[in-house]
Amino acid sequence: MNKPIFELKNVTVLGNKNSSNVTKILNNLSLTINDGDFITVIGTNGAGKSTLLNVISGALAIDDGIILHNGRDITNLSEEEHTKFLSRVFQDPQLGTAPRMTVAENMLLALKRGERRFLVPRKLKQNRERFLKLAKMMHNGLEDRMDTFTGNLSGGQRQALSFLMAILKKPDILLLDEHTAALDPHTSQSLLNATREIISQDKITALMITHHLEDALNYGNRLLVLKQGKIIADLDHNAKIKLTTDDLYRYFE
Ligand SMILES: Nc1ncnc2c1ncn2[C@@H]1O[C@H](COP(=O)(O)OP(=O)(O)OP(=O)(O)O)[C@@H](O)[C@H]1O
């Protein structure tokens, strides 16, 4: 524990660069993510939460600062190179899965994240038990739809599959960008519980953006509050368990 896996040092991201109205979307932000951290991230609309995840995933280049992965400077590493050690689940159930492939085929492709990918039927057979076991952990009938095209799944099942695809090959960091926000309350809760169970079982380091203050308190061992491109609170487990949603709400005032 407490081994830094990912470090952002004095990271600034500018907006409206080609205008006279340049803004700092991330403003001299520093963050150390330690091995095994499960960090929930909250903040007002426009605080910079998605931008932070875009920077960590390599989708967005920074304008100033340094980014380290296991001590290696990866500030200029391409997004594709990032996929070798990092995965992300988005809010939109349409993203993240190939609709004309079956659930099992999608899972097989995910096993090869960051590598050249071919579908080998023999490998599907070899991995079927493991895929089924994982699908059962989602508690939404996904295990009965292993040979269904993902385009025919419910939103909740597709999002559960996106999550499983993100963890099948254990990432150094898992980024969850409001991954349950488009789901109904029951389905959302069920996916969150499965998320916690698998993150804990596989000891995955994760960052999860949420707009639900209760979820931010109930999940993870650490909580970040972002405001205007800065981290205004970085609360560890001991600080977090003493807080109520009302305490968190004050950060939004
Ligand atoms: N390419 C860009 N150029 C200029 N401004 C941008 C750009 N991308 C994002 N922004 C602005 O940066 C700010 C942060 O956006 P970001 O999407 O990171 O916020 P967020 O905290 O994820 O918000 P939300 O909760 O609404 O999803 C917003 O004001 C947004 O309009």
What does the model show?
Helix content is 34%, strand content 25%. It is an alpha/beta fold. It has a domain at 96-169. The radius of gyration is 18 Å and the shape is globular. Adenosine-5'-triphosphate (ATP) binds at residues 15-16, 25, 43, 45-51.
Question: Which features does this protein show?
Answer:
ABC transporter, ATP-binding protein; binds adenosine-5'-triphosphate; 253 residues; six-stranded mixed β-sheet; globular; alpha/beta; 34% helix
Uncertain spans: none
> What series of H and E elements makes up the topology?
EEEHEEHEHHHEHEHEEHH
Assembly type of the chains comes to: single chain
Give the CA-based shape.
Answer: globular
| Portion of residues within helices | 25-40%
Bound chemical compounds: adenosine-5'-triphosphate
Widest sheet, order of strands: 6-7-8-3-9-10
Q: Let me know the average pLDDT.
A: 93
Number of strands: 10
Membrane topology: Peripheral membrane protein
InterPro entries: AAA+_ATPase (IPR003593), ABC_transporter-like_ATP-bd (IPR003439), ABC_transporter-like_CS (IPR017871), ABC_transporter_ATP-bind (IPR050166), P-loop_NTPase (IPR027417)
Protein name: ABC transporter, ATP-binding protein
Subcellular location: Cell membrane
